[in-house]
UniProtKB/TrEMBL annotation:
One of its GO terms (cellular component) is axoneme. This is CAP-Gly domain-containing protein. Residues 320-383 have a biased composition (Low complexity). It comes from Astrephomene gubernaculifera. PROSITE patterns: CAP_GLY_1, CAP_GLY_2. Residues 207-238, 311-406, 487-506 are annotated as: Disordered. SUPFAM superfamilies: Cap-Gly domain (SSF74924), L domain-like (SSF52058), Ubiquitin-like (SSF54236).
Amino acid sequence: MATPSVGCRVRILKDYATVRYIGPVAKQEGTWVGVEWDDPSRGKHDGSTGGIRYFECKASGNAGSFVRIERVSFGVSVLEALRARYNNETAEHGEEVKEDELYVHTSRNRRVRVQLVGEEKIQQKQRQIHALESARLVGLDVAFVDAASALSSSLPALTSLDLTCNLLTNWAAVEQLATALPNLSALNLSENRIQIQIQIPTAEQTAEEQKETVAGEVQPAASTQNTEPSAGEAAAALAPVPAAATAATTATALPPQPPAPRRGVLLPGLRVLVLNDCGISWQDVLQVAPQLPSLQELHCCGNSIPSLHPAPHHLRHSSSRASTAAAAAATTTTPPALPPTQQEAEGQQPLQQPQQQATVINQEDGSPQQQPQPQQQGQVQEGDGSGGEQAANDVQSECDDEAGGNDDEAAAELLASLFPRLQVLTLEEVGLRGWSQLLPLRRLPALTRLHLAGNPRITHVRYPDAAAAAAVPAAAAVAAPGAAAATESQPSTSSPSASDSPAAAVAAAAPDPTTAAVPAAAAAAASVSFPRLTALFLGGCGIADWGSVDQLDRFPELKEVRLTGNPVLALSRTGGRFEVIGRVSRLRHLNGAEVRPRERRDSELRYLQHIAAEMEAAAAAGDETSRAAVRAAHPRLRALMEVYGSVLATAARGGPGGPGGSLAASTVELKLTCVAAAAQAKMGTQVKKLPRTTTVSALRLLCERLFKVPADRMALFLRAPGDPLPEDLGGSELEDRPLAFFGVQAGYEVLVDEVDPGEVRAAGERSRQQAAAAHEQRLAEQLRAAERMQAEVARNMGAPQQQQ
């Protein structure tokens, strides 16, 4: 068992807390532990009772209480938890192992245990701990790490370790694990409150180390020692407080002193690191990044990370790295150090100088950094978690960050040097203040997947390098439909007149091919942002404009996007899927569903016909400003016209009597299917060739004549081949829309159903009433469960005097 000490993490029954005091309590017998609960509602006071203060709570409110030391679990070592779990002595979260855990119910509601084939062999294999390659120790109160020799001999083959929801508090445990287990490549530390204290050498120390490195005199850094306190420290921690102190009006326990900064240990084997809900900041991540040169996946969900911009001292030490290395190399006859980065060569310095600080990490290449300090007034404190910022301040911060210039580029270069192999980065629900806070990631050379779900303050997306996006060859869009992004077109000199067809209006709006090639030479020399990003997950964010969706098409390798839960999709009556596919040319997966070639063709045609309808309306109004706005709102206009222009022109030519027109070109073959269950309705399917100019109201009258369903009680739905969800054609604003507006093609199906307006309203009211009743029932069940839990806790805690 871990030795009790102030500042350690503990579990009491099923709740977690941090120890703030160990010792006697006035008018009580025995040794008591003063804790600050993770759940403040469990607390009874703020660290003082009976007029005497014993400790301070960091959280506001009454989050503290006293518990007898016998009822506190201070945790076990990794090997102790491993043996208990894989010898089937305990289940996850310390629960008892149930022999009849797997069972099925019979027709008479009796439990019949399920026996797994080969279960005994599997259990025997799991008991052979030395052969384990993957271990899961979730909620088993792991508080410290065993000696390196014991770990390496017991777990020589271990490659993946899950330590979610344990009692680890120090980054030194990670160093000990990775050092003792050389094959360890994946480590999950979620829900452990990790404190990171790593020393960064001063400039003088770095210069001296550079000289020693060149001379071959530097020795490998010693491994950190076991963090378990010594017997002397334990005795001192448990020693009773003198009587004079307990009789005083205040008996404050001194807060634990932070551990002395340590030199970081290189961890080249770790490739996957999960730090979800660990209470860390982005500056903490930057501190440990030099220790992880092989890191490929980093998960930081649930932490407070409003921005990814490094603190000024990180930029300062990054820019001084090249000059330090060069000065050290100049004193020897060996070849010079690596050349400086572009930011260093230009002599750029941060706008604000950092305060005087104690230095902190030994990076792999000897570069100095500093431990994050409280920032100056006007700067955002990383990880403060405060939510009092106003929307206007967010917008101003976005503008300031986007205009960061050299500092922004320096931050991007720094992160690219710290994470050269990072492929997956997860930052879900971290409170990002906007898209501009992610710009330091744009130079990561290997980043392929970026998870940003649950950050509602990301209200827009902007690709950083518009010039680089313009360099994508336009010919790629012709070879494969939607395979390349098109830059925003310039207003055409020859605007279509009101008498022009939609196809002619779209063709006239498309820019000249030479305009896209103008910036190509300059863009070729520029660095491409997010060069390998293939998947971007933005579910549950606050994106509310189609311009941000258009920006996704500028990412050179983007093939998968998730936009579920964003307000922009609510702007479309059909859910926005075909608009997103039409605007983003390289998408292969959208919201978890594959985009097949047939769906892409239909979506792009339908999207192009929407543009044609908008251009026709603007041409009819004779407003050049409106036509320019339509062209600017659809950057893919030219690429789509190059692929589908002839199809659109043929479909939009005049009627059979018009010049060059034909009946086949102006009609479309549709399946009309009646699914109405009314007695007078004629169910079945009929195939009809209808003009593309047929309006919804005219289609409604035709279906009334064919299927005997009253027009005022009729509901129409349009379904594309292979599309499981049909589009509702109801609504007064759509009655005058022609079939061409909906992108109707041969093979589409119109479903005809009968609805009762009064019944629809009544059904909606019943649904609301049922939802309210279900909500009340859930609340009642939760209250009963809470009462049962309180009774169980009272029985487990014993008499009232055992917890004050």
